[in-house]
Structures are given as structure tokens and as C-alpha cells.
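Render this sequence as a predicted structure.
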Amino acid sequence: MKGEVTILGIDPGTTIMGYGLIHVKDNKVQLLAMGVLDLKKYKDHYTKLQRIFIRTLSLIDEFKPDTLAIEAPFFGKNVQSMLKLGRAQGVAMSAALYRNLPITEYAPLKIKMAITGSGSASKEQVADMLRRFLNIPVEQMLPQLDATDGLAAAYCHYLQMGRPTGGSEYKGWKDFAAKNATRVRETRKKTSEDDLP
């Protein structure tokens, strides 16, 4: 990936919101900031949503990111928790839209896969990989893993942007196959040969 881009990553939550910002220049990634917004002291849900909006807006105004990468809510059994988490995500997204930032959502599984290669990786494993990738000194790592979850969303977006596509964008698998017919044929042939005894 050539050029420069600043990515804001957010892990939404109504108790703690994690965030991380990275700057990418000519494929070199630099950590700009990571942290958390602690919302435990606010009892009113709407006050929490207001604080999420204000903090997201202040991060955008301070660091001038080019895009927002946000973790999508996972589907759980508790409907009330899902509703609250969805609202928190929506408010963070609203702040980005208010500043005309493009938004990309990533499922937690996708983020873990991108960072560690395993969808079942723990938050600690994700944090450790990010620390290594970004050369973050151990003493600068925050105890709240929500911060590295937000950072992971930003780094995942960088990895998705940096995929070697030959300067093309694809609208799905069929589009990719049509634009890379030779490559697809070679992969199919190799897969068939590997299946032979």
C-alpha cells in the first residue's frame, strides 16, 4: 500500500469503549494513540451514549483520521445487552458520519483472524501480537484490553487495505475470479494435484 492514511479503530461498549489510532505511510505503521473511555461512573444510558459521541468526535478532530474501522456487535443471547451495544456502536458511527468519515465494520472473528491467524484467539493474544507488530513497549500497554481491541480494528483495516490486489477492487468472489482467471485455474489445478494420493 502506497501513500498515507490514518485509521481510527473503535471497540464500542457501554461500560468501556476502546480506541486506537494508527498512521500508515508507505506501508509503515505507527501507533498514534490508544486508550479507553470509562463509562462506568455514568448511571444513565443516554449520558453514556452522549459521552461516546463526544469522545469519538474529539478523537476525529484531534487526529484527523481518514477512516473509521469499528468492531461489529457479536450476537449474544441477552437481547438488552445487544441493544445497548448496538446503540453504542451506532453513536460512534454517527460521530464519524458527522465528520464525513467512511466506516468499515469488522466482525470480532475477522479481526482476530487478521491479527493472529486464529478466530478463537484470546484478547490477550491479540494484544500481544499488536504489541509486537507496532513495537509498543510493555510498560505502555494498558491493562484494559478494550484499548487493544479498538487498536485491533484499526490494524485489521490496514491489513485489509494492504492486500495485494494489483490495483483492483473486487465486488465479490465472482468479480475476483473473472479478473484473475489464470490465477484461479492454477489454484484449482494445484488443489486437485494435492488431493491425489
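Summary. The chain has two domains: 4-163, 168-197. DSSP finds seven helices and five strands in the chain.
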